[in-house]
Design goal:
Helices cover 44% and strands 16% of the residues. It is built from 10 helices and 9 strands. The chain has helices at 2-21, 65-79, 97-108, 126-133, 154-163, 207-216, 230-244, 248-255, 258-275, 280-293; strands at 35-41, 44-49, 87-91, 113-117, 139-144, 174-180, 197-199, 202-204, 221-225. The strands form 2 sheets. The protein has a 7-stranded mixed beta sheet, with helices on both faces. The chain has a two-stranded antiparallel ribbon with strand order 7-8. Helix 2 packs across helix 3 and helix 9 crosses helix 10.
Length: 294
């Protein structure tokens, strides 16, 4: 009997330790935080406060005036309680889609804006998140980066329902901002073009294409991002080099003479050629490498 009792005590101790490790649904998030990340372990999920979110500013996003204006306008209307839309930011990689969301959040966080980052694999738990924040006074942006789906993924239907289609209304204090390299979020196949047909002179897409369009169509605002020109890319390089310079004098010394400027820009273009991309991300990475060498 003694051995059995000790075994039961050890089992109870183990269960107590597991309860500490697994956050329970009753545990309240730290609502004093401005940014959160949705964490999931098994069937349980919780909002984890992010104490030091990325501090990128709107002034660091060059060559994106149209995109910045659209996102700022929509987010400001949301904060003011006016009409605002869920947003899909789509286009070329490294062109500032996720950076723009983070920059707008930083610019408006003191006005009550909060950011929740969620991985696409956790979108199946969207109903839990919506119920958690439904009665909160803050206004939340649910941010899903690099969103794309393959056929049959579980989060696909959950996102469709949250955007528009569930019998339960989406909370008025939440918008969904997603970034993607794909405009329609799903892979588009050449074979699907054969499903198209012409009826009374009008082109009608096949069912599989309509299904793919139906998800992105539920985002009220589409904001497109395109590859940067060579001049825009070089402007970004110079911007980040000035930002990374330890002193104003060292920043000036890189650009004062035409020979130094030509050498720098030649190296920046070669860097972009090797990466196969003239993007803001590539400019930032080159500037970090260059500033570390000189």
């Amino acid at each position: 009997m003694g051995a059995k009792k000790r075994l039961l005590q050890r089992a109870e101790t183990l269960l107590e330790r597991l309860e500490v490790l697994l956050p329970g649904g009753a545990e309240s998030p730290d609502w004093t935080a401005h940014a959160f990340r949705w964490r999931r372990r098994g069937d349980r999920g919780w909002l984890q406060a992010v104490p030091a979110p990325h501090r990128i500013g709107l002034e660091d996003l060059l060559c994106l005036d149209r995109q910045k204006a659209e996102i700022e306008r929509n987010t400001a209307a949301f904060l003011a309680g006016r009409g605002a839309n869920n947003v899909l930011l789509w286009g070329s990689r490294g062109t500032g889609k996720s950076s723009l969301i983070k920059a707008v959040f930083n610019a408006m966080r003191e006005r009550g804006l909060r950011l929740i980052e969620i991985d696409k694999d956790d979108l199946i738990q969207l109903p839990e998140i919506l119920e958690l924040i439904r009665d909160r006074p803050e206004r939340f942006i649910l941010f899903c980066d690099d969103l794309s789906f393959d056929a049959g993924e579980s989060g696909y239907k959950a996102l469709k329902a949250a955007l528009d289609g569930s019998i339960t209304a989406t909370p008025e204090n939440l918008l969904i901002y997603a970034t993607s390299n794909r405009r329609h979020l799903l892979p588009e196949l050449q074979s699907e073009n054969r499903e198209a047909r012409i009826v009374d002179g009008e082109l009608h897409q096949g069912e599989s294409v309509e299904e793919k369009i139906s998800l992105s169509d539920r985002f009220g605002l589409w904001v497109a991002f395109h590859p940067f020109s060579q001049a825009q890319y070089l402007a970004l390089v110079h911007h980040w080099l000035a930002r990374l310079a330890t002193t104003p004098e060292s920043a000036a010394s890189e650009t004062d003479t035409s020979a130094r400027r030509e050498a720098l820009e030649r190296a920046a273009l070669q860097w972009a050629l090797r990466r196969g991309s003239r993007s803001g991300r590539t400019a930032w990475q080159f500037a970090r490498d260059w500033s570390g060498r000189v």
